[in-house]
Hints:
alpha+beta
Amino acid sequence: MDDVARLCEHMFEQRPQSDALPSVRVGTFVKIGIRGERFWCCVKSTRGDGALLGVVDNDLLKSPWRRGEEIVLQRNHVLETAEPTDELTFRNLVTGLAL
């Protein structure tokens, strides 16, 4: 493995440049990927430079972060978003399918 491949392995995945940057605000859940592992963070705040402060929502296997730890992200690292209200919709869907 060359140096560039080794470096890329330890960098956050990025959205395709052709995709619009997602709408993200405090409380939005964002899916992030690094080291072949994807996980959710809850956006705690946005900085003046556009960076996001996220709180990790999972214990990770391939990265040192644990649930509750804060990480700094860029909007181009956001692979997917979910709003807190999406959880209620999902729960209702699962309940309906379980009947």
